[in-house]
Amino acid sequence: MDNCLFCKIVEGSIPSKKVYEDDKFLVFHDIQPAAPVHVLIIPKKHIASMNEVGSEDFALIGEMHRIAQNVARELGIAENGYRLINNCGPDSGQAVAHIHYHLLGGAKLGALVQSSDSHAV
């Protein structure tokens, strides 16, 4: 996509502080970190959001989770825990229309949603 910020980062016309790169994915530091460790995991293929993921992309999304596990280990946050977030659409806070995961860790993160093991369905 011509105007996609993340596609421009993939092509190298906008610099980034890379953590990992292969032929399908790029992981780089967020420019406005919300935690001591805050990186973005993106596929090089442009997919606007989770709503646009087609059946041909399911394997790619699975690989993104493998990348997240590996990067969390490499950045030293896997053992104590990390948060993996995907925002989908404007109401969620998705600011760039290119599917991506935020990988955050390096500190005790606050609760996003109250949860309880006693919820019954």
UniProtKB/TrEMBL annotation:
Chain ranges for the short sequence motif Histidine triad motif as given in the UniProt record: 98-102
Domain named HIT: residues: 5-114
PROSITE patterns per the UniProt record, alphabetical: HIT_2
InterPro entries: Histidine_triad_HIT, HIT-like, HIT-like_sf
PANTHER family in alphabetical order: HISTIDINE TRIAD HIT PROTEIN
Name of protein: Histidine triad nucleotide-binding protein
Organism of provenance: Paenibacillus puldeungensis
